[in-house]
Design a protein that fits this description.
Layout (H helix, E strand, L loop, with lengths): L1 H16 L5 H11 L13 H4 L7 H4 L26 E10 L2 E6 L5 E5 L3 E6 L2 E2 L18 E6 L3 H4 L1 E9 L4 E10 L4 E9 L14 E3 L5 E5 L8 E2 L2 E2 L13 E5 L21 E4 L4 E7 L4 E6 L6 E4 L37 E3 L5 E6 L12 E5 L4 E7 L5 E8 L4 E6 L5 E5 L4 E8 L3
Antiparallel strand pairs: 1-26, 2-3, 3-4, 4-5, 6-7, 7-8, 8-9, 10-11, 11-14, 12-13, 14-15, 16-17, 17-18, 18-19, 20-21, 21-22, 22-23, 24-25, 25-26
Helix pairs in contact: 1-2
This protein binds calcium ion.
Length: about 450
């Protein structure tokens, strides 16, 4: 096999130049030395992919930020196991959470946790309050839908606002909503729907959703594309809405904290676009994080079969779905034979086979000094957390795996500088990661 031959030659090269040929390094070098991506059997029929690897497509590199250069901007597609991370230990803080989805901390250190069936829970001093918080809006809890993200307003101490994302409606007609509520420590009140996808869709797939806050006080909210074939909308596959600038499906939107739309959004002056849109061409983002130093936004999104992506979304840009993708139909066959196209942004990492990424943290703490400035991406299918090693320019330079052994729905940095994990199980857990001996 060509891969084995390359592996051997890389190992020889590795010993010649004195580095350990880890699976990660091998995957990188395979990608750099192959003329077509692994797991893309039809790529050779695509003229855009025969002359150069998609990793170094020069036309799309022109569309990326000047902070990154084209040679190191390659999507990285490890084809085997990534190495195991070390230097940490796991502690189960709370058990008995039903399909927990998201977590957020209040200024007093208490922790809010959503459960997908529609409950909001609170953990104080490491103990789960047995009584759920009252006042959560009714959700459509079906398949991937239900109560999803929870986010605390940056000025919660003054205004006591929290935000929830959830699916609403019926199995035949549903959509993603964002609600804002006041939390007094016991119950929600003044619950207001501040944003929704106006188009109603069927079935229980691809609602998104995550919220992050930007330094200017606006929020980004990720909304899924609405679902897989055969789900249709407006006479075509619903997934095509990700490229429809009049639709909020398959987008990251930017909102003011009351749900109104900022006047300086990238498409605000375009009469033919929904001015809430911040970036588009996304399939289903369930991990969204912000690096406060570089001000970069990071997002993980689910592909179909394989082709999960890490992207570094920027205002007004198109991330390609479903026109360009590394993923395949669940039923087999290509969704598109294009992996890259001018005017569309390449992913920074492609995961095939799928990790099913959910939850994303950008680590800024002191407790894991070696991990500062890295991303931590949970995986439902991989049942691990991928630590994505970034250099200061935001280039991906490596990846390793923190084994959890259960579906990982969310990963966050706590106010104590430790990492917290939620497992997507019927008896879901909140896990804390601490440095070994720390
Ligand atoms: Ca993409």
């Amino acid at each position: 096999m060509m891969k084995a031959r390359i592996n051997r030659s890389i190992k020889r090269l590795g010993s010649a130049i004195g580095f350990a040929a880890s699976p990660w390094a091998i995957a990188l070098l395979i990608l750099a030395s192959c003329s077509q991506p692994q797991n893309s059997p039809n790529a050779s029929t695509n003229p855009q992919n025969t002359s150069s690897p998609p990793a170094t497509d020069s036309s799309s590199a022109q569309n990326t930020s000047p902070a990154t250069d084209s040679s190191s901007n390659a999507p990285i597609e490890p084809t085997g196991d990534v190495p195991a991370a070390s230097g940490y230990e796991q502690t189960t803080v709370v058990e008995g959470l039903e399909r927990p989805w998201s977590m957020a901390w209040l200024p007093d250190g208490a922790m809010l946790i959503t459960e997908r069936p529609g409950r909001l829970r609170i953990v104080r001093n490491g103990t789960l309050d047995p009584t759920a918080i009252a006042g959560v809006p009714e959700v459509l809890a079906v398949n991937q839908g239900g109560l999803m993200d929870v986010s605390v307003h940056p000025n919660f101490a003054q205004n006591r606002f929290i935000y929830l994302t959830y699916s609403h409606g019926s199995e035949e007609a549903n959509h993603t909503r964002v609600a804002r509520a006041t939390f007094d420590g016991k119950a929600l009140s003044n619950v207001q729907v501040i944003f929704e996808v106006p188009q109603l869709k069927s079935r229980g797939q691809h609602f998104g959703s995550r919220i992050i806050w930007l330094p200017d006080g606006t929020m980004l909210v990720a909304i899924g594309d609405g679902g897989n074939p055969p789900v249709e909308l407006e006479g075509d596959l619903i997934r095509k809405q990700a490229q429809n600038l009049n639709s909020r499906l398959g987008k990251i939107v930017r909102l003011n904290d009351d749900g109104s739309i900022p006047k300086d959004n990238p498409l605000a002056s375009d009469a033919n676009a929904d001015s809430a849109i911040w970036s588009y061409g996304h399939r289903n983002i369930q991990g969204l994080a912000f690096d406060p130093t570089s001000q970069r936004v990071w997002a993980t999104e689910h592909g179909s079969r394989g082709g999960d992506e890490l992207n570094q979304p920027q205002a007004g840009k198109n991330y390609g779905w479903p026109v360009v993708t590394y993923s395949q139909e669940y039923t087999g066959g290509e969704i598109s034979n294009e992996r890259s196209r001018p005017g569309m942004e390449d992913p920074k990492v492609v995961w095939t086979p799928a990790t099913a990424p959910s939850g994303l943290a950008f680590y800024t703490g002191d407790r894991f000094g070696q991990w500062r400035g890295d991303l931590f991406a949970g995986g439902l299918v991989s049942q691990d957390i991928r630590r994505i090693d970034l250099d200061e320019s935001g280039n991906v330079v490596g990846q390793d795996a923190i084994e959890i052994g259960q579906r990982v729905r969310d990963v966050r940095q706590g106010p104590d500088g430790l990492l917290y994990v939620l497992t997507d199980e019927q008896n879901g857990r909140l896990i804390r990661l601490e440095p070994t001996g720390g």
